[in-house]
Amino acid sequence: MPLEYKTEQQKKAFYNSGAWKKLRLDALERDNYECQHCKADGKVTVDSVKEEGKRKEIVLNVDHKYPIEFYPKLALVLDNLQTLCINHHNIKEGRTMDKIRPKSKKKKWDDEWW
Ligand SMILES: [Zn+2]
Question: What is the pLDDT of residues 1-20, one digit of tens each?
Answer without folding.
Answer: 458 999 999 999 999 999 99
